[in-house]
Write a structure and sequence with these properties.
The chain is mainly beta. The protein has 4 helices and 16 strands. Strand 8 and strand 9 form a beta hairpin.
Length: 319
């Protein structure tokens, strides 16, 4: 065991083999799984920095890493706080908050993601012999929540490993559903031209039983799987101040996606861009960030094909 810890390349190889094997499993049966996953809000990028680059598997760091790759919090030297807001589609609002602190021989993180879908119009059918559609029969609400605890540790100056446990819940009118999900991630810094790699399996766990009436058969109300996702990223310095990278994203119920990105840093400011080669529904993202020592701010805009732009805002503070 000690020899493995002393050689981070062995850890990296083992981790990437396991994670890559998982991605092959996820790649099968895409068309059969569309719409079958519960808690799809877990697939939404809530961090503005991550959204602008199409993912931060390789370079996530500090409290922001709680929402991208938990291994990224391992490099935190002190306490850190982050909070963000996403103005999602159709007046849906997502809030996220996270805190990290070095302890227990590594770094511990606590975070939360909350989704508010606003008021949704009720409608129905009236009549006994001739049914008539009746809209505007009041309203109901829907919310999602993920409470998360993370731990990460640097196994060397180049390699880190981290994990997250999540308590996820969903409420639609008077129907509630809850369960547990888990993330595990790794990061590796090659030490050459700022080239970094990272890999994450997120949202894996036990299938959730649907809220079905007694006596209902399985075919009518099948169990729902979690939105398990594999992501891999690599980034490096192309020229002074400009880092470019590639992210590979594979959700259990969606096609595999390849995302190109770039980030150019000038003094305290950074400009960001990403292009998704496989998802025309959300293909282009832009963003910017300002780092004023212990305080950082981020903003991102993602273009969508049919619903306008999605805006994200983030604020971070290091103690």
């Amino acid at each position: 065991m000690k020899s493995i810890i002393k050689n981070p390349m062995k850890w990296l190889t083992l981790s990437l083999v396991v994670i890559s094997f998982q991605s092959i499993i996820l790649a099968e049966g895409d068309n059969d799984k569309v719409g079958s996953s519960a808690f799809k809000f877990l697939n939404i990028q809530t961090d503005a920095h991550s959204a602008a680059l199409g993912g931060l598997s390789a370079q996530a760091s500090g409290a922001n890493a709680l929402f991208s790759n938990p291994s990224g919090i391992a490099g935190s030297d002190g306490m850190g706080f982050t909070a963000g807001m996403t103005q999602w589609l159709v007046e849906t609002q997502i809030m996220n908050v996270g805190f990290v602190m070095p302890m227990m021989g590594g770094v511990v993180g606590l975070s939360m993601v909350s989704v508010d879908y606003g008021d949704i119009m009720e409608s129905g059918w009236a009549g006994t012999t001739e049914f008539v559609f009746e809209p505007n029969q009041g309203a109901f609400t829907a919310t999602d929540m993920s409470l998360q605890a993370s731990f990460a540790k640097s196994l060397s100056d180049k390699f880190s490993l981290g994990g997250t446990a999540k308590r996820v819940s969903q409420a639609i009118d008077e129907v509630n559903l809850s369960g547990f999900a888990f993330d595990i991630g790794t990061q590796f810094d090659t030490g050459y031209r700022n080239i970094k790699m990272g890999a994450v399996i997120s949202n894996f766990g036990k299938d959730l039983a649907s809220q079905a009436d007694e006596g209902a058969n399985y075919a009518e109300f099948p169990a729902m799987s979690l939105p398990m996702t594999f992501s891999f990223g690599v980034t490096g310095e192309a020229i002074a101040g400009l880092n470019v990278g590639l992210n590979v994203l594979k959700q259990a119920d969606m096609e595999q996606e390849f995302i190109l990105n770039g980030e150019y840093a000038v003094s305290i400011a950074s400009l960001r861009f990403s292009y998704n080669l496989n998802n025309p529904q959300q293909d282009v993202s832009f963003g910017a960030g300002v780092n004023l020592g212990s305080i950082s701010t981020n903003i991102a805009m993602t273009n969508t094909k049919h619903f306008g732009s999605v805006m994200r805002f983030g604020l971070g503070y290091n103690f």
